[in-house]
Amino acid sequence: MTGIVSYGTYIPRYRIKLFDIANVWQKVPEEIIRGFRVSEKAVAGIDEDSVTMGIEAGKRAFDLVNLGPTKIGSVYFGSESHPYAVNPSSSIVAEFLGVGNDYFAADLEFACKAATAGIQLTTGFIDSKKINYGLVIGSDTAQGKPHDALEYTASSIATAYILGGKKTEIIAQILAMTSFTSDTPDFWRRDGARYPSHFGRFTGEPAYFTHVVSAGKKLLTQSKMSPSDFDYCVFHMPNGKFPRIAAKKLGFTDEQLAPSLTVEKIGNPYSASSLLGLAAVLDIAKPGQKIFFVSYGSGAGSDGFIFKTTPQIKKIQKKIVPVWQQIENKTYIDYTKYLRQTHTI
Amino acid sequence: MKVNVLGIGTTKFGELWNSSPRSLAREAMNEALSDAKKKASQIDALFVGNMLADLLGNQANLGSLFAESLGVSVPAFHIEGACASGGLALHAAVNGILSGQYKTVMVLGVEKMTDCQPDEITSGLMAAGTDEERLAGATFPGIYALMAQAYMQKYDISEELLASVSVKNHYHGSFNSKAQFQKPFSIEQIMKSTKVADPLKLLECSPVSDGAAAVVVSSTNGNSKSVSIVASEVGTDTLGLADRESFTTLNSVVSAAKRAYKKAKINPDDIDVAEVHDCFSIAEVLAVEDLGFAKRGMGARDIAEGKFTLGTGKMIVNPSGGLKACGHPVGATGIKQIAEIVTQLRGSADKRQVKNAKIGLTHNVGGSGAVAAIHILKK
Amino acid sequence: MITTPVKLWRRQKNVSAVIGKTGEILQWTIIRTPPRAFVQEAPYPVVVVSLAGGKKMVGQLVDWNQEDLIKGRKVVAVLRKLFPSDAESVIAYIIKFKPL
Prior knowledge:
Chain B is α/β, with parallel strands linked by helices and 379 residues long. Chain B has helices at residues 21-36, 52-57, 62-70, 85-98, 118-125, 131-135, 140-155, 159-173, 187-192, 251-264, 281-290, 299-304, 322-326, 333-346, and strands spanning 3-10, 45-49, 76-79, 104-111, 195-197, 200-201, 211-218, 227-236, 273-275, 316-317, 359-366, 371-378.
């Protein structure tokens, strides 16, 4: 058996309202908010980056369980905003978390699904009994060019997952795993470029929806399950509209989707997006519940998982720092502060 | 053996765009030689106090450099102890004489700060602190502000009372033609000045300055003008503020002063005039308490009541205007303090003369109190 | 200041050991004339913290409001980035304090 043993999330304190961003560019705020179905997004402090946030999330994951960091056998860090182009975030985080020297490690990039790819890799190590525990971090300080559509949603958050193979420790077992991958250039960032570029409406049908729905359908076929067998569904959330449409296309209800829909209040933190939605579900799920999960990374691909919660989840829930509590723990900043904190000025 | 100050020389302190470190040094040293009625060839060694030439100007080897300015290839030494560099250079010179190796020595304190921008200077000065303080983004106004807050909380002192230090020193500075600032300031003006590091305001902080001061010190008897150094003591404390037991006293000062009073066989109330290190208003408050001129917790109140002010006080502190009004070219201050006390003890301080000044003290501190040099002089 | 890769590497274990430690503010000030490396963040508070266990440390306070600047305020040590002044230097991660 392989599954999630612990998890941690870190949402920075600062928020900027889409209302305020829209006013800067003299757009109609209500239209913008309605169009994205997002009202505000999380902004990192001026001295935070994907590594510092990853360490906070990682610490929270270790705090939940009685696991010495040196037991970790692999560390994978997925992000689109690694502080260095060359110098691994994974080993910096591992060093600060006290993992020691005996672990497999690498940094991953696959747009917003870099960390879920890390989870797939880690399950391979655990299934083959090469390691006992693996740490995966999905963390981003997502950037959006001023005046571009992405400016309204690109946000900063970190998530950390510890995976393991002991039945008595697993809180959510991985029942199935799949991917649907292609070469679809919907969203990209050239080496050295500060902001990502995207091709507008091309990011919808041929990109997000093709991959999410295809991976989703494969999961259902593989597992011989249907949407009604699940208690929750979680999708990558580039905005408030896409995951709702994907859920509907695959046959899921609003009730199944709602608990994971974090995007409206914190935006799209790229590699942390779907994993934050998953954490929000794990915060409240009861034992024996099934979670349908599909991430999406531009370029493009979707990673699908089916999780089933175990009785162990109740123990962990007593000690978590809940996602929704962090979402509500906020300080609003204005556009000028936002420019300073994102190092634009 | 007695160690006598035979001659003194100081340049004006201020933003001296046209002056270089060498020109400042030459001016001060020549004035000191002339005052001592000595020639450069009669100097056996040179001790130089300076902090920033190396850090900001990439120039080390200052002993040799300034020996060139003096015009003689004598044994020459650069002594550094942040803002106490001047006092420490004098201490080293005194020891050189007491050892018998040197008879007549030149001590030079010199600093050129205005060649760099304010934020570079702020960073450079933080070399006197710890890595932890630097990584915290602390500045020296910030570190002294933390001490000010601790003092104000402990003794229930207001910001106004603290600011009275600046009022006194600017008043004194108005009688000093070599001071950077020669205008008095009112308490309102000081309270209204912009905050630099809460609660310290701009007019409570000594300025960035250029300047040099020099003294000729010797074991030979001087003339009627010479003054003896009867004690020269140095103390240290932890480098960083956070490692200290108390933020309202400088152990480096207390220990050095204790030894200095013992050496000179006097008590604090025997001192007639003192030049103390008022890099920030709070520094003078701590100084008068650490030196035994005021009871613990009474320093700010005594200063505000005029107990140490020319005209109203008996024992005068910083008749020159202190660092606040004269300016604080870091390495030069310790020697300038000596020059002022010598002037006072000679009776030639003109409008800022302390009546019947017979015994004087200088208090020169480096960093947030990591090192202190105390000198006692007697006519 | 510690920004060479070797110095950072040598100090890393000490820094890791402090992350997550709690303490309380002993004294605070706000720096308004920062050194060059901190110009972006100014004005910011610098605090002396008494950590659980007795050790005292100086550090910058982050994610703060004016109400947090009081003696006794509980804080936690976090790791934050010292933004390099150029595009090529190694990045220093340092201890700062956050109100709890």
